[in-house]
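Budget justification note: compute hours in this period were largely spent on complex prediction jobs such as the one shown. Inputs:
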Amino acid sequence: MIIVGELINSSRKAVASAIETRDEDAIRKLAKDQAENGAHYIDVNAGSFKTGEPEHLRWLVEKVQEAVDLPCCIDSPNPRAIEAGLMVHRGAAMINSVSLEKRRHEDLIPLVAGTDFKVIALCMSDSGMPRTADDRIRTAEALLNLLTKHRVKMDHIYVDPLVQPVAADQTFGREFLAAIEKIMSHFEGIHTICGLSNVSFGLPLRKFLNQTFMAMAIAKGLDAAILDPLDKRMMANVLAAEALAGRDRFCMNFLRSYREKRLQL
Ligand code: THG
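Corresponding output:
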């Protein structure tokens, strides 16, 4: 499972103020803590700032990469902000995200064409949010065609079918899960990724719901996730679900994590 640490996100109050006051130590600590707890990428998001987002994102990329030897997942709906982050990034960043919305992909495709960047392909189009698994597959297919036509390798594409709250419509969870299964079985070499926490919006015990949903998504083939690596129960859940779904040869990863006391409930 490829883990993208979600904590450096300006929707969190402490992070927004660290960005505003240029508190390098706070950002460095968040990057280090997530790296030490199993993150492979560090998500950086300054989307709550109406002005200066590109400059904030560039600063975040610099501070994260000074602190840890990991690539960033550059998270913005604004192609200009993504570009600013990429300018200072070392190694192959993950671009979060390209969608089928015309304005968004027209600006981003030239940035990713023929590169080794990982690209999150978000299942959103100009007709809005997807509802069914079929909505998601259609958008995913169009995005895959677009990206591969521009020489992005299948193995570098992470489809995000977009998690929607089950409190708004009880079919949203199962439609998302069906989409993961179809995408993973139809497109050879592709990856799937998601941010889980939307699923529990408007309900109590959100962490518990997110953890349960993660195990269900792993059973369908999800192989990357944007989550809080400091959530021990979530990380244990990932290890358990991968072993139980037959994605951990001889349960070696589960056993090693247990021995190294990284599997604590
Ligand atoms: N897909 C993709 N990228 C994404 C998302 C996605 N990036 C952003 C988001 N969704 C995933 N990242 C976060 C980061 C922080 C929090 C949730 C998701 C978070 N939530 C607080 C909590 O859970 O305690 C609540 C914050 C609040 O409501 O104010 O910290 O789906 N490609």
